[in-house]
Amino acid sequence: MSSTSFAKKTFKSIKGSAQKALHRSLDQHVKLAVTGLSGSGKTAFITALVKHLTTQSDDKNLPFFDVMREHRHIATKVVPQEALKVPTFDYPRALNALLPTDGMPTWPASTERINTLRLAIKYQSASGLRGHFSPQSTLYLDIIDYPGEWLLDLPMLEQSYSQWCEQQYPLLLQHPRVNTSTEFLNAFEQLDLNAPVDEGLLAHIAALYQSMLVGLKKDTKLAMLQPGRMLMPGDLQGAPLLLFFPVNAQHIKSDEVVPGSNLAHLIKRFNAYVKEVVKPFYNEHFKHFDRQIVLVDVPSALNEGHETLQEQSSVINQLLAHFNYGESGFFKRLFKPNIDKILFAANKSDHISAKHHKDLALLLDSLVHEQSNHLKFDGVQIETMAMSSIAATQPRQVADKGQTLDCIYGKPLNEQDWLTYLPPQPPKRMLNKNEWPAQGFEFLSFAPMPNPDKQLKHIRLDHVMQYLLGDKLS
After folding, report:
1. Is the Cβ–Cβ distance between 246 and 165 less than 8 Å?
2. CA-to-CA distance for 474 and 270, rounded, in angstroms?
3. The whole model's pTM is what?
């Protein structure tokens, strides 16, 4: 390479880095972490966000989003992303599921791989440094979509195999896992951990463990299902890397692990999984976020009882420990971007009566209180709200015996008939076992509502946009 070519290449690299730094310093680039467990509504949220910012972007639809209310929004469009090795989020496919040309709408398919999307939001600058340089500005918004199952593995980054077993194995003996773990536990009891490695036997027991996890994901809302790639293997299907499982931690003594034994092999596979799967996923996709929304399907967890809701709370608090948080000033944005705002969103609020939306937000607040207290201490702004990125029901008032009941109307998921339904009232805080109602909770899930006008309806999505992006579009 000639000195001239080298100089040009170096200048181009420095110029690109300088432009990125300038964008960050002027808040022209925001990376949004859309966080949530499987089934929390991440794909639907991203689809709705794009739809409302592009073809439904007006003050009547988004009245609490300042840039819309003040008529400063010019236009938003999807633009080419920087992560060229990562597939683009399939927005057309997701939107077509919600707004089909014929037939009934359906929820978009769950994400099975990493996707990303970049939006360019052009707007009139109101004041400040941006307004000084140009009356018009563009905010670039990067969104990462990923399988919620993969997110579950982040706590494994700080665990040894023994520590992981101490957490996971006792769960198999407790309700509701004990109802489905018998076959796996029986097979494990026949395994001699100190015997020379029998890869065929380990693969058989791992398959039983995977089958149990898949069944729990299908039939429950349990959150602590690890390793996550057993639920959504992707290109790792059948790889030896996934052929491990938890054992009774009482059988593990680090100074007595027999080389070449079944136990040594399980430890080796666990360590390789963390190093080659979990750590790259974290390093490549979970650093340098600026803002974060944590979506939680609270009604579905309430349906399954105290243990499931408590487990979701525990998992969410563990996951939050693996993001970078803190105040994000001028120089921090240039050299070490941190998440300075988090929104905890109780999604699917349209599945309960509007007058109880505040109760839902208070309950979610109590579920994340421990971790949010630490984040506030670090200077992070925290907000909790009930919302629905896509409203699947309509409010209905029904007169009954002289009373007016606040009901909802929609088509329950996987059913043919439409229903006017009075949902139960969610608790305002986490209940202990003794406080849990004997009859439990029964919230219905609903299919998307047909929209002949090809417009998606939402509940407080404009509040969400204002909280996460409003200051960036001033």
Report:
1. yes
2. 48
3. 0.86
